[in-house]
């Protein structure tokens, strides 16, 4: 499976959430709402998730292998750091 497109929408509001990302795989499957977070040890990605009835968050889609997660994070953060982002007015139009 190849990553064929990465689209990043930077969040204009200050905070730990820096951007929302849409990733396309093999030009035929897309995952929306991957988040770029500024954590204690630097930037990382968080997969799209939903809140369960118990208040916990559960990933909707996620890499199975640590190697693919590392590759996905590396590619997304490289695009973010290179400045290939679209400005967003706020995070209000995004789904969490």
TrEMBL record:
UniProt keyword list: Cell cycle, Cell division, Septation
InterPro entries in the record: SpoVG, SpoVG_sf
BP-aspect Gene Ontology terms: division septum assembly; sporulation resulting in formation of a cellular spore
UniProt similarity note: Belongs to the SpoVG family.
Function description: Could be involved in septation.
Protein name: Putative septation protein SpoVG
Organism: Treponema brennaborense (strain DSM 12168 / CIP 105900 / DD5/3)
Taxonomic placement: Bacteria, Pseudomonadati, Spirochaetota, Spirochaetia, Spirochaetales
């Amino acid at each position: 499976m190849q990553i064929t497109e990465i689209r990043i929408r930077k969040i204009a509001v200050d905070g730990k959430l820096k951007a929302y990302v849409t990733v396309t795989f093999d030009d035929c499957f897309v995952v929306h709402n991957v988040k770029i977070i500024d954590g204690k040890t630097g930037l990382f990605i968080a997969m799209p998730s939903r809140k369960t009835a118990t208040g916990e968050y559960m990933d909707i889609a996620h890499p199975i292998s640590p190697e693919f997660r590392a590759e996905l994070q590396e590619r997304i953060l490289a695009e973010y750091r290179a400045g290939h982002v679209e400005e967003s007015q706020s995070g209000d139009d995004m789904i969490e």
